[in-house]
Write a structure and sequence with these properties.
The structure holds 2 protein chains of 2 kinds.
Chain A lengths: L6 E14 L4 E16 L4 E5 L6 H8 L7 E6 L2 E2 L5 H8 L2 E4 L13 H11 L5 H14 L16 H13 L5 E5 L7 H18 L2 E6 L2 H7 L2 E6 L2 E7 H6 L4 H8 L51 E2 L7 E2 L21
Parallel strand pairs in A: 3-8, 3-9, 6-7, 7-8
Antiparallel strand pairs in A: 1-2, 1-4, 4-5, 9-10, 10-12, 11-12
Helix pairs in contact in A: 3-4, 3-5, 4-5, 5-6
Chain B lengths: L5 H14 L7 H10 L2 H18 L1 H4 L46 H37 L1 H16 L2 H12 L3 H27 L3 H9 L3 H37 L11 H8 L8 H28 L6
The chains are: A alpha/beta, B mainly alpha.
């Protein structure tokens, strides 16, 4: 059992209807998440990166069952939770929590933060008020606030403090798996580091498994054990942090990494500039979603079949979805990638 | 355990300073603080409090029973024949009738005082009924959505399709004239306003992250609606209700003026206007004082409602 991933996602799809016209008929679908396979092991932090609108938040919200998947399956700790409902879902909720991006909208402005934090305890049967207060106090201290802050209201706190409160609310039930949905992107850079370090410390202390959603590659590098790169609703590449940053396999990852600014004016930069825009998820391209912008795409291959996540040659645990780099058409790759040929 | 930077320490120092103001600042306390800073709102509140006191202590203030016909009971009292504007001095009315006597020789001042009871109770009851029913319908429509939303809101649209006073008249015509039926009629015609506002609020609030957080913690739909959505949706409804009292009083006066609301001899401002409207030129004070009472009441509630709206809207900082 110990080797079984805590979270196993198979071919997860989420489509949103697009309605229009006089009678609000469905005129299309947005493929927010278009078939994602993802394993998250116990105790690790998986960073999920991608551009705006690539489906990272949708994926995160499906994992904690805030959104209903259209198809596919989510297996959490050996139990299929994809379509659990009502009383069967409630005990699972206790073990799955989420931290939100915007610390200003994630706390109820009319509720004292102590009550916001203890809501989970109340819902999950900690009926004694004294015990709840005691645990809220401990939790507040754990996230670097003070016990007496429990009586205060959200508007009395700064963004960083609010995010700590959000952390306290998510962690008080001692969940196994936490989705952190861009938890620091709304904060000042100086506060970002504090919250990130806090999250890291709490992860070790509480033995958390974390899916860290972000669009900032530096932040992801700091916190993750493994990193998954998402593009247009699919995972392009997933591997451990170091090999992603050193040997990216997928051309999209290469382009992303080359966009990270290097604080050294003398160093020549070898930037891969992507052409065009991210295609619309309402009408995604055929085959590999990335082929219209891909510098190495080969017509007749990339625009026909959807690439699967495949093991990279000569590397353990490095999966990428590219016909030319990891797939069956490696001989067609003319880009001279060190690992391609 | 946590490495604290100087910035965090500064923040903490700041929050320590805040602690000196003993109690935490709830939204409600903040609102009251802001409300107190607004002159017009405070004037409105003053008028409303004054009217409530008048209504409560009406038997103490009013020198006469409002329905008592004074003819034959007092020396020198007789039905008026000549033109008479009382406040400028009318010889027939003794000085104890400071607003004179009406066409049925009842003390006008006592009737105006007692009229506040009728109008205020009617205003509060209609608004309470409309607020409860309207916000319940709006909350259900907004939270459940789907076909239920469509059914409820289309019914509301139908009600809104009629001019409100005309619809109220139609309802009273069905139920029969009377104060109670006027109350029900006015409540029905004002329900859609509350339903719409509540639905809009619920639609916005149910998408917020704090509602998502509650769902993720395992709260049921009912718990979320009662603990998260409704408390946060109340702000504009409070404003609407305050302003709604003024509208309700005005509509009740209108119905009574048409003879569909309060029935004689109930001292209601609207019906007092109606019964003396033919004497407008001979004794204008009998129309003037009930009219003035209506105006002051409506003004008071409107000023208070505006003040509340400004105080509750944090973006409107002066």
């Amino acid at each position: 059992m110990a080797d079984l991933p805590l979270v196993q996602v198979r071919d997860l799809v989420k489509q949103f209807p697009v309605k229009g016209g006089v009678f609000q008929r469905q005129i299309g679908t947005v493929n927010a998440v278009a078939g994602v396979d993802l394993d998250i092991r116990r105790g690790e932090t998986v960073g999920l990166v991608g551009e705006s609108g690539c489906g990272k938040t949708t994926l995160g919200r499906m994992l904690v069952r805030l959104l209903e998947p259209t198809s596919g399956s989510i297996v959490f700790d050996g139990q299929d939770i994809t379509h659990l409902k009502g009383p069967k879902l409630k005990p699972v909720r206790r073990r799955l929590q989420i931290i939100f991006q915007d610390p200003y909208s994630s706390l109820d402005p009319r509720t004292q933060v102590g009550n916001s934090i203890s809501e989970g305890l109340r819902l999950h049967g900690v009926s004694s008020k004294d015990e709840r207060q005691e645990r809220v106090k401990r939790m507040l201290e754990l996230v670097g606030l003070e016990g007496h802050h429990a009586q205060r209201f959200p508007h009395e706190f700064s963004g960083g403090q609010r995010q700590r409160i959000g952390l306290a609310r998510a962690l008080i039930l001692e969940p196994d798996f936490v989705v952190a949905d861009e938890p620091v992107s709304a904060l000042d850079v100086s506060v970002q580091a504090q919250v990130l370090n806090l999250l890291k410390e709490l992860q070790t202390e509480l033995d958390l498994t974390l899916l860290f959603v972000a669009h900032n590659l530096a932040v992801v590098e700091h916190i993750s054990d493994r990193v998954a790169v998402m593009y247009l609703g699919r995972i392009a590449e997933i591997t451990d942090r170091d090999s992603l940053y050193q040997n990216p396999m997928h051309p999209y990852t290469e382009a992303l990494l080359s966009a990270i600014p290097i604080p050294d004016p003398d160093r020549p930069r070898n930037r891969t500039i992507l052409q065009g825009e991210v295609p619309s998820p309402i009408d995604p391209p055929s085959g590999c979603f990335f082929h219209p912008r891909c510098p190495i795409a080969v017509s007749g291959v990339c625009d026909v079949t959807v690439p699967k996540l495949m093991q990279a040659p000569r590397e353990q645990d490095h999966l990428a979805a590219c016909h030319l780099r990891t797939g069956e058409h490696r001989e067609l790759d003319e880009s001279g990638s060190a690992f391609g040929a | 355990m946590i490495s604290r930077s100087k910035a965090l320490e500064a923040l903490e120092a700041q929050s320590q300073e805040l602690d000196l103001t003993e109690k935490p600042l709830s939204q409600w306390r903040l609102t009251m603080r802001r409300f107190r800073g607004r002159t017009s709102g405070m004037i409105g509140l003053g008028i409303v409090v004054f009217l409530i006191l008048v209504a409560v202590f009406a038997p103490v203030i009013a020198p006469y029973d409002p329905n008592e016909v004074l003819i034959g009971k007092e020396e020198g009292i007789k039905p008026r024949e000549k033109p008479c504007i009382h406040i400028l001095g009318c010889p027939e009315d003794k000085p104890q009738h400071i607003m004179g006597t009406d066409g049925n020789v009842r003390d006008e001042f006592s009737r105006v005082i007692f009229g506040s009871r009728v109008s205020l109770t009617l205003g509060f009851f209609t608004v309470t009924i409309a607020l409860l029913v309207g916000s319940f319908l709006g909350a259900v429509a907004g939270y459940v959505g789907g076909w239920l939303d469509n059914v409820i809101m289309r019914i509301m649209d139908v009600i809104l399709g009629f001019p409100s006073l005309l619809l109220a008249i139609a309802i009273v015509a069905v139920l029969g004239p009377g104060l109670q039926n006027a109350l029900i009629a006015i409540a029905i015609v004002t329900i859609p306003a509350y339903a719409r506002v509540m639905r809009a609020q619920v639609l916005a609030i149910k998408e917020t992250d704090y509602v998502s957080a509650s769902i993720a913690l395992g709260a049921s739909a009912r718990q979320i609606l009662l603990r998260r959505v409704v408390p946060n949706a109340l702000t504009p409804l409070v404003v609407l209700a305050t302003l709604g009292v003024a509208t309700a009083i005005l509509e009740a006066a209108g119905l009574s003026f048409l003879g569909l609301g309060a029935q004689p001899p109930t001292p209601e401002w609207g019906s007092m206007l109606a019964s003396e409207r033919n004497n407008l030129f001979t004794s204008p004070h009998l129309v003037f004082f009930p009219g003035l009472a209506i105006m002051i009441t409506v003004l008071g509630f409107n000023l208070m409602g505006d003040g509340l709206r400004d105080a509750l809207d944090p973006t409107l900082n002066r």
